[in-house]
Design brief:
Structural class: alpha/beta
Order of helices and strands: EEEHHHEHHEEEHEHEHEHEHHEHEEEH
Radius of gyration: 20 Å
Number of strands: 15
Length: about 400
């Protein structure tokens, strides 16, 4: 069996693109991988094209060797878009190998340790604050609407949610200076106004979900460590799953972890064992967030095992299409230290149609697929029906 073609595809997923890699073989087996990055889709797709000549004619089952061949092509610009391209291809190769052997990918990593994985509803409130009209969902005009959304989380069977800094109103807003632009957006200083808005948000969600549902707050890159610590202390009375925060400085994470009453989660932006290692060695987080579409499956698996060696849990970073959901649940199937898995519930109405077998989500859990490879392919007719153009591009999350 030999690789005959490698392609990258974009899909317009409403307010951000999804990016997929398709690897074809000369025996007709096709593999799919997702490596979506809403902020740099063209860079990722271009890097996939840069690797096609290296891959065509090779045996797709030699995944580890091909991974290192690709890594050496990008040796002088490791990480970022180049690594995400490698990940998308590597994921497609695992899909091919599983299909060739007639087994799910998790069987290639020792078999499943669990039959289903607990989920948390991610971007809960965030998506409605930004895109309620586009999705036909209730707007968030007041904190009473946040309480009602909390009720919905419970009614739909979820035991955890994650939100960002959401400010209800007409229209509702979100606070994302860490991904912003323009003047007065780089300081990372927590103001009294924003602190009060965060406290009001978590108060409303807590009223809505009750005492048994945990709440995670994702602060992204929005504040300096001192602001994160202040927020953590203000929210001490709530039932928090974790405070999530991004920084490239492991010692800053450790400073936060040792100063807040909640658990700390981080690392979603990191790729490869080399970037995770200093964070894990310092025990700088309680839960390491691992993005399968950005790391690839083997690296994500090794990172997860390394986290286990330091007695830390992992949680997949996962807010993409259902193909990524499947990739993430395969990872959760083969690791001993999974805390919970992220998933977006508010999304485009045709999300299930994009895959040939949608994952089964029931009672706040996702079930393991049983079909070979990832358990589903991309439906190319649906993919073509939602083309992505630069003029449609938005910042995403």
């Amino acid at each position: 069996m030999r690789i005959s073609r490698v392609q990258a595809f974009h899909c317009d997923a409403g307010w951000r693109p999804w990016t997929f890699v398709k690897v074809e073989t000369d025996v007709g087996i096709v593999g799919w991988g997702e490596c979506s990055d809403s902020r740099n889709p063209y860079g990722v797709a271009g890097s996939v094209r840069d690797l096609e000549d290296l891959l065509v004619g090779e045996d797709p089952r030699a995944i580890e060797r091909l991974y290192w061949d690709m890594l050496r092509v990008f040796r002088q610009n490791l990480g970022g878009t180049s690594h995400k391209a490698i990940a998308g291809i590597e994921l497609a190769l695992w899909d091919i190998k599983g299909k060739a052997l007639g087994v799910p990918v998790y069987e290639l990593f020792g078999g499943p340790m669990r039959e289903r994985v607990r989920l948390y509803w991610s971007h809960c409130g965030t998506t409605r604050a930004r895109h309620s009209e586009k999705l036909g969902l209730p707007p968030l005009r007041s904190y009473d609407d946040i309480v009602a959304l909390g009720h919905e989380v419970v009614e739909r069977g979820f035991t955890a949610l994650k939100t960002n800094v959401v400010i209800p109103g007409d229209p509702a807003r979100t606070y994302f200076p860490g991904f912003g632009r323009g003047p007065n957006t780089t300081d990372g200083v927590l103001t009294a106004e924003v602190r009060e808005q965060i406290e009001a948000l978590i108060t409303a969600f807590s009223q809505g979900v009750g005492p048994k549902v945990q709440i995670a707050l994702d602060l992204n890159y929005n504040f300096r460590p001192a602001g994160v610590v202040e927020i953590g202390r203000v929210l001490e009375r709530f039932n928090m799953q974790w405070i999530e925060y991004d920084t490239w400085d492991p010692r800053a994470l450790l400073q936060i972890k040792e100063s807040i009453p909640q658990r700390l989660a981080s690392c979603e932006s990191l790729v490869s064992t080399r970037q995770y290692r200093p964070v894990l060695e310092l025990h700088a987080v309680d839960t390491a967030i691992v993005d399968v579409p950005w790391n690839g499956f083997a690296q994500a698996y090794i990172i997860g095992q390394l986290a286990d060696a330091y007695e830390l849990t992992i949680a997949p970073h996962n807010y993409y299409s259902h193909l990524a959901d499947l990739q993430a649940v395969h990872l959760c199937a083969v690791l001993p230290n999974v805390q919970i898995m992220e998933i977006d519930i508010d999304d485009v109405p045709w999300k299930k149609e994009l895959v040939t077998r949608a994952p089964i989500i029931k009672d706040g859990h996702i079930e393991l697929p049983t079909a070979p490879g990832w358990g589903a392919d991309i439906d190319e007719a649906v993919l073509r029906a939602h083309p992505f153009e630069r003029s449609q591009r938005q910042v995403g999350y």
